[in-house]
């Protein structure tokens, strides 16, 4: 029988406990989410906003 507290998985280039991964993914998502639209504006020169307006 496998002890679940010893199970690991990969997160980027790290090996982490499986029960920690969801929290780590959530942290990355929340740290990126606030900058997502700004980066889209810069990388697409604002075209993504036109595309969103057409498809909403």
Provide an overview of this structure.
With 56 residues, this protein is α+β, with helices and mostly antiparallel strands. It has a domain of 37 residues. It has 2 helices and 2 strands, in the order ββαα. It has a two-stranded antiparallel sheet with strand order 1-2. The termini are far apart.
Cα separation of the termini: 51 Å
Q: In terms of per-residue confidence, which ranges show pLDDT below 50 for 5 or more consecutive residues?
A: none
Strand order of the largest sheet: 1-2
Classify the helix fraction into a percent range. Answer: 55-70%
Counted beta strands: 2
- Alpha carbon gyration radius: 18 Å
Strand residue content: 5-15%
The main sheet comes to:
2 strands, antiparallel
Number of helices: 2
Outline: elongated
Structural class: alpha+beta
Rounded average pLDDT: 86
What pattern of helices and strands is seen along the backbone?
Answer: EEHH
GO biological process, one term: methylation
Organism: Escherichia coli
Keywords: Methyltransferase, S-adenosyl-L-methionine, Transferase, Ubiquinone
EC number: 2.1.1.-, 2.1.1.163
């Amino acid at each position: 029988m496998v002890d679940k507290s010893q199970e690991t998985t990969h997160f980027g280039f790290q090996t982490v406990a499986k029960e920690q991964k969801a929290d780590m993914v959530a942290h990355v998502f929340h740290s990126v989410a606030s900058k997502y639209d700004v980066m889209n504006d810069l990388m697409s020169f604002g075209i993504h906003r036109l595309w969103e307006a057409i498809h909403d």
